[in-house]
Specification:
The chain is about 55% helix and about 0% strand. By secondary structure, the chain is mostly helical. It has a two-stranded antiparallel ribbon. The protein is extended and about 55 Å long.
Length: about 170
């Protein structure tokens, strides 16, 4: 916000509003426990870093290192990648976290094993593939309840492939 020309006073006021918000869900007329918003995507990256840092990566063999990276770095964000388009920045940061443990370039890690690589998934491409899979499921099963809910909320008067990004998207 400072780069956009906002005064420090306004930045502090807005950040106070954002960081002091709390929510609770009313269930059966009773308020539940209070929770606070957080940035979910940074939570995912922090969780990956914590898992990778928690293991003694220096003591693992090469095969153990590869298994650790594949089991942690590509599986933690999978569910949210099916629902949200990750920013390219976040994917690059997670890929960078993997490179800190491994010793090869990212391009060589993503190549197939028969081409001298380790067949790691590029997270940006994996994210797009998972979102494409959801689109395919929507197109092949348009009468599913979850598809009808999304259609009613985001593209009521259009088909999926003609929907435009708008205020509700």
């Amino acid at each position: 916000m400072g780069r956009m020309g906002f005064d420090l006073f306004w930045i502090k006021m807005i950040m106070t509003c954002i960081t002091t918000v709390s929510f609770f869900v009313i269930l059966n007329g009773q308020p539940g426990r209070t929770f606070y918003p957080s940035r979910a995507l940074s939570f995912i990256r922090d969780r990956i870093k914590k898992k990778l840092g928690g293991w003694k990566a220096n003591t693992l063999s090469l095969a153990g290192n590869e298994t650790l990276l594949k089991a942690v770095a590509t599986t933690i964000p999978t569910y949210s990648m099916m629902c949200f388009c990750y920013p390219a920045n976040l994917c690059k940061e997670i890929n960078g976290d993997i490179l800190k443990i491994h010793w090869k370039s990212w391009q060589s890690l993503c190549r197939g094993k028969d081409n001298g690589g380790l067949r790691f998934r590029d997270l940006m491409e994996f994210n797009l593939a998972l979102l494409g899979k959801q689109c395919w499921r929507m197109l092949s099963n348009p009468n599913a309840y979850w598809v009808r809910v999304l259609k009613a909320k985001y593209f009521l008067n259009e088909e999926l492939m003609q929907a435009k990004v708008g205020a509700r998207a």
